[in-house]
Amino acid sequence: MQVEDLVEAIRLLETVLPPDVEGRLRGALGRESGISKMVVEAILENVLYAKERGVPMCQDTGILEFFVRCSNDHEEIRNKIAEALRRATREVPLRANTVNPFTRENEGTNLGRSHPIVHFEGRPLNEGDIEMDIIAKGAGSENVSASFMLDPMQGVEGIKKAVVQAVQKAGAKPCPPVVVGVGVGGNLERSAYLAKKALLRPLNEKNPNRNLAELEEELIEKVNALGIGPMGLGGSTTTIGVLLEWGHCHTASLPVSVNIQCWALRRISLEWQGKNFRILR
């Protein structure tokens, strides 16, 4: 795994919107009218400008989070990710976002205590390969994400209410149309992890569980019925997708986390097979 590969991947992550996300935004364009349609047109113009000029599509280049599947060498991989972040901050460039939460001191590298944020998720399909997903998450949408510890008796209806409540409370702050990642189960922190991980699934890939696929579609309808619309100016499209991940939980718990993502869903998937590197999506 070469640091140069990662720096280039981070550049693409920040400057080129995934085709499935752009496709959903273009779909929204056909549903909107008046000022809401003008907002979506402006978003798509921004997407094109960023791609053509090779500049970040948003001034908040976010906190980057890495999901890695590898056989071993975790510390070496973490160190290479840190070096790639340091270089990308200068070269892309990325805005230096990471600060000491108490003093607000900024080292200017997008690194620091507990950074980079790397999740090692087990082994890849082939021994020796490295698979990686990266997501960049800005503060506007992360700040309005939420976790709920529901009574198990609230069941699926409680999950629906939690998702809709979180989006309604967020309003225009996360720059809608949003993508909503939902994590159900595990415990408090696991549900939050699952909600973030849910955002890695392409919007045009249905949930493999038929019941959950139907639940995602129902939640899209409920969220869009809120009428918040593009940038909070009203309209038919408050969300362009709801994605759900789940895990088993304690019999007396029902953890639910809602990770709200702005229209600029910046994610990329990478693979190294020996020295051969490729971008999967």
Provide a brief overview of the structure:
This protein has 281 residues and is of the alpha+beta class. The protein has helices spanning 3-15, 19-31, 34-53, 74-91, 139-142, 155-170, 188-198, 210-224, and strands at 63-70, 117-120, 130-137, 146-150, 178-186, 239-249, 254-261, 266-273, 276-279. It is built from 8 helices and 9 strands.
What's the arrangement of secondary structure elements?
Layout: H1 3-15, H2 19-31, H3 34-53, E1 63-70, H4 74-91, E2 117-120, E3 130-137, H5 139-142, E4 146-150, H6 155-170, E5 178-186, H7 188-198, H8 210-224, E6 239-249, E7 254-261, E8 266-273, E9 276-279
Parallel strand pairs: 1-2, 5-6
Antiparallel strand pairs: 1-3, 3-8, 4-7, 5-7, 8-9
Helix pairs in contact: 1-4, 2-3
Walk me through this protein's architecture:
Strand 8 and strand 9 form a beta hairpin. The mean pLDDT is about 95. The chain is built from eight helices and nine strands. It has about 280 residues and is an alpha+beta fold. It folds into two domains: about 5-15 and about 55-140 and about 265-280, Dihydrodipicolinate Reductase, domain 2 (2-Layer Sandwich), CATH 3.30.360; about 140-260, no CATH class. It starts with a helix and ends with a strand. Helix 1 (about 5-15) packs across helix 4 (about 75-90) and helix 2 (about 20-30) packs antiparallel against helix 3 (about 35-55). About 40% of the residues lie in helices and about 25% in strands.
